[in-house]
Amino acid sequence: MTDDPLPRLPSLLETVLGVGSELELRGTLQRIVDGAAELTGARYAALDTTDPGQDGLAPIRTTGRPAPARQGAGTLDVPILVHGEDFGRLHLAGKRGGGPFTAQDEQVLRVLAVQAGIAIGNARLYETARQRERWIEGAAAVTTALLTGRSAGDALMTVAERARLLADASAGVVLLPTPEGGMEIVAAATHGDPADIVGTTIEPGSAVLEQLLGGEPVFIDDSATDPRMTTHVRHRFGPSMMLPLQAEGRLIGTLALPRRRGDRAYTPVERLLATQFASHAALALVLADAQHGRERLAVYEDRDRIARDLHDLVVQRLFATGMMLESTQRRAGADDDGVHETLGRAVDELQSTVQEVRTAIFALQQPPAEAPVTFRGKVLRETAGAAALLGFPPSTHFLGAVETRVPERVAEQLLTALRRALSAAAGRRGVSRIEVTVDARAMLPDGRAAVRLTVHDDGERTDGTTVTWQSPL
């Protein structure tokens, strides 16, 4: 290749234009390296950044053998400046033909380095704009998802999963404060099974926790070696961000975004955008909770109104009709056996109807909270809800492995029987105590395994009233 730079001018211009046309930062750097090698005839070219963490970049190289020592005639080295700051250095080695690099090679390389600095600055601006756009779109998507009636657990998972994808993290984790003053992981979005992550706690007094409770984000270079990290899962992760979910001056929880060990550190731009996302997500969580509260209040009001109307209108009318029929039955003569029997059946039917309506009223007065997922939880919800009618909570006991032995079909039948029994007890006078027992160790007379429900109250009669229901398993 000639030492005269003019014959290389068209190639230099073409390379400069190619570098300037690339918008993506890594693509820009690769064009710079490839163009430098082509223009100077170097066998090997590399661009090492001064601060790889700033842009999340690994060194950019051409294909070929590793670079030799960077001193002497066989190497060429020029700096790249971006807005007056040192971005990195462009290294060339092994000129084709075996000769040394010339002054003209260095001159061409310096021209390319100046244009590269301009192109890198533009690519940085473009990449920052793209990142900001993605995070803004992600925050908007989270808000939309949270305001469409998701449950509290689903809302937290939505925040965790969306943040994990935006941050290119190994996991997205949401922690909530514990009564003891620590924080517990309640939602985790990961590539694999998050079961051993959920439930992990940060104990009170932790340096990280104190910073988070003060509303400050925590940035960690390596979770596995940072002494502030104390959880049993820390060894899996490397760089991490722990961002307070804070809105209206109240700390809701923490959003943690750890990357795998060995992954690149978070850039300052990524830290800023993630912190802004956490603030936006916290506000969306507060708004969603307020909306959910308004909806629950509307449900409460509707259920109370329906229950009140049923009690004040339907039950009282049925009761009055039953009283009239009983009075007519007593006045019916002994010779009127047919009439006497018909009136008896009518009274029985009305009493049964009253019982069914009371059961419906009782069900309407239960709090429409999140449905328990376990059989034991469903039983406890029914007994706890009865306190609204009784004025006191029933005493509840479980015998045997109720969770594993009672199938879903039988469980639903038992819950229906329990609601009826509790409603009936609420309608009896003098009831001050109720005992509920669910026995999964019961046996039927024919020897089959069974579950038995017993509801005993101390009302009306001397020895109280006991209702028993059982079913084979």
UniProtKB/TrEMBL annotation:
Keywords: Kinase, Transferase, Two-component regulatory system. Gene3D superfamilies: 1.20.5.1930, 3.30.450.40. Pfam families: GAF_2, HisKA_3. GO terms for molecular function: phosphorelay sensor kinase activity; protein dimerization activity. Residues 47-73 are annotated as: Disordered. SMART domains: GAF (SM00065). InterPro entries: GAF, GAF-like_dom_sf, Sensor_HK_TwoCompSys, Sig_transdc_His_kin_sub3_dim/P. The keyword Kinase applies. Residues 24-130, 151-295 form the GAF domain. One of its GO terms (cellular component) is membrane. This is Histidine kinase.
